[in-house]
Protein: NUDIX domain-containing protein
Amino acid sequence: MPPYDPSAFPPFAVTVDLVVLTVRRHALCALAVRRGEPPFQGRWALPGGFVRADEDLEDAAARELAEETGLHAQSPTGPAPAYGAHLEQLATYGDPKRDPRMRVVSVAHLVLAPDLPAPTAGGDAHSARWAPVETLLEQDEAREGELTAPLAFDHARILGDGVERARSKIEYSSLATAFCPQEFTVGELRRVYEAVWGVALDPRNFHRKVTGTPGFLVPTGGTTTRQGGRPAQLFRAGGATLLNPPMLRPEV
Amino acid sequence: MPPYDPSAFPPFAVTVDLVVLTVRRHALCALAVRRGEPPFQGRWALPGGFVRADEDLEDAAARELAEETGLHAQSPTGPAPAYGAHLEQLATYGDPKRDPRMRVVSVAHLVLAPDLPAPTAGGDAHSARWAPVETLLEQDEAREGELTAPLAFDHARILGDGVERARSKIEYSSLATAFCPQEFTVGELRRVYEAVWGVALDPRNFHRKVTGTPGFLVPTGGTTTRQGGRPAQLFRAGGATLLNPPMLRPEV
DNA sequence: GCAATAGTGTCTATTAGACAATATTTC
DNA sequence: GAAATATTGTCTAATAGACACTATTGC
Structure:
């Protein structure tokens, strides 16, 4: 019975990679950093880095997130800071050939954040930017712009998995509010759904649905006209995490 | 910029652990193996083992599954063998203290299998058995049977996550058929839902629902009376993977 | 006034769930 | 016949989606 012989395990490196999503200008965007060294030098990649020797996986993801964006993570398993992004584990990628140098297992995490002013608040990446996910996932069809090149490593697959997770999770949970600022209007929340799903939703039915789901939205009493038109009520995210009944994605 | 320095990564061991679920005697059961060496010697644990140096994570999970049960995996990303269990990645667990000996990151996988005759077809575990998940997840409240002791390591948490995944996934996918033999009746499929969810379902509405969902079930033409009563039509799983509309879990 | 967004009301087709009734087997 | 399971039919309350209509701002 050879398993669990601590002295004879194959050497692995373990990293965390981050799929950081936000909604900017009506488009679902992801954070990409430009690689400063080989392999894939100069190419865009997902932010990430090594897990430290005495660090839990989620802590490593939160640390990388803070280093890249200044955001503080707000995960289900931990005390919630005043202002933070949603962080959850996505999946783990361990193809033996995914990194040409050595065996690297990457535990990808998904982050949903409100629209942020500056993409690179500080960190060790040469440069960083938000890019629409369609741009990052496009195949490189004789185009010249660097952003249209495929992502380094298997990061296109990881990004695709993260986008798919986000698209399905806002159906049956209140996670769409993680894309909104602390106070937001029903119209702003609707535009999040429209951007993430890439569809148009009926504003009237949407309003009735979200305000009628208990625990989804809590009115703050304030109003705003930042979208123009009639002033809209401001809401905060309510305590509910699972939506029952779910939001229905049209044309499935 | 220190990330990705291949010569200075902390040493990790990477394992796969398996949550193998089946339905036996109207109860959701998981495969447990008895540990033959410290730590947790003599305690029950989830099957698993080291990922080999040149092996993908899913391949390692499929290999461990075959070693423990003789089952062949049938994953979405690979050619489907004639007869196989459903295999998918569950989550990754990497608390620095989860193994007292060294830093071990475990990539847990979820397996859904039809009822099997012998739990330990061959393998390196001293003994193995199916146990109801409630038994394995019970706290050790001054009981004496070994099966009621908590699982080794963080395996109770992993098993709980796997059970939760299975319970939610049969709602909106056709995965419940993975618990059935190749040919099965509507009543047998209903008893799978009842065992996994722990509820009673109306046989008449259930029948109308599953036979009315396109692509869920394909009649084979045969009938069986193995449940007693009027002969029931036999079905195979259809091509549909996502159920729309989903099966609704009562009392949520 | 017009344009834009917010919000309410109403109608209809669909559906989930309750449950009566019938069909076909074993005992 | 009695008991068990399978299968179909019917009714009702709830709901998703379409869309008319009103409200309140900025210009």
